[in-house]
Structures are given as structure tokens and as C-alpha cells.
Write a structure and sequence with these properties.
mainly alpha, Tetracycline Repressor, domain 2, elongated
């Protein structure tokens, strides 16, 4: 914790006032990543065409997977494990992708039988190989493949 305070250029007391334990800091980092995804859904939906908003959010989800892998070992040390933390935040992620896919379906850019969670599951599957070299580039290509494969069948 002292090293984190030093790198953040704040006093250790300031860090401990906001995050009294290492676990509190890790949980805050994870929750911030999830909130970034939720906020991005609304921002992208307001500023982009539906299919582009979906694509941009999915690319951001790849970044989320990368961040999650960096902190996952530490999250696993939280008392009771990370499962309760993940369950509490999963609804935010699910709502975001459902909203984006719903807009893309309504615009006709995505086939109407697409289950938004199928896209999410495919991206989460990438996390199983997130330790291999080049996985992030591969995941970004997968986003485009998933978008193309989600287009209406002619």
C-alpha cells in the first residue's frame, strides 16, 4: 500500500483513509473498471451509430479483460473470494451489452435472433487465453469477426 501511495504521489495516510485495506483498494479498482463499461455504453450509444457503439464497447471490454487479469490474483485473496464482487457487478455489464445489442437489432445492423450474452460469452472466452502472447490483438480481431457474424443473414 505504501508503494502504491508513493507511485500515486499521495501520502500513505490519504490512501489509507480512502482504502483502509488492500482488499478495499482492489475492490475499488475492479468496480471502477465495471463502471467505466457501464458509462461507456451510454456515451457510445449517444454519440455513435448502433453497430459502431456495440463494436467500440466490445473493444473496451477487451481492455477490461486485460485489467481484470492484472488484478485477478489479488482479487482471489479477498475474504470469501471474488465471486460476490463479480456477481454484484455482472448486472451492470449485462445491462450494457443488452442495451447496445438491442439498439443494433432495432437499427437492422444485427440479426434479431442474437442473444447479447452470446457476444459477451465469446469475449469472456478470450480471457481463458489472455496469458498468451498477442492475445489482445487476437481479441480485437475477434470483435470484428463477431460483429460481422452477427449481421443479418441475407
Amino acid at each position: 500500500m505504501d508503494e502504491i501511495a508513493k507511485q500515486a504521489r499521495i501520502g500513505a495516510g490519504t490512501l489509507y483513509r480512502h482504502f483502509p485495506t488492500r482488499e478495499a483498494l482492489l475492490e475499488a479498482v475492479y468496480r471502477t473498471e465495471v463502471e467505466t463499461l457501464a458509462t461507456a455504453e451510454r456515451k457510445f450509444a449517444a454519440a455513435m451509430l448502433p453497430v459502431e457503439a456495440l463494436r467500440s464497447w466490445m473493444l473496451l471490454f477487451v481492455d477490461y479483460i486485460a485489467a481484470k487479469h492484472l488484478i485477478a490474483p489479488a482479487l482471489n485473496t479477498i475474504v470469501g473470494g471474488p465471486s460476490s464482487l463479480f456477481q454484484a457487478t455482472a448486472a451492470q455489464i449485462t445491462r450494457a451489452i443488452q442495451a447496445l445489442v438491442g439498439r443494433a437489432i432495432a437499427s437492422g445492423d444485427i440479426r434479431p435472433d442474437l442473444d447479447p450474452l452470446d457476444l459477451l460469452r465469446a469475449l469472456i472466452g478470450v480471457s481463458n487465453v489472455a496469458t498468451g502472447p498477442g492475445w489482445e490483438q487476437s481479441a480485437r480481431r475477434l470483435v470484428d469477426i463477431l460483429i460481422l457474424g452477427s449481421r443479418p443473414i441475407a
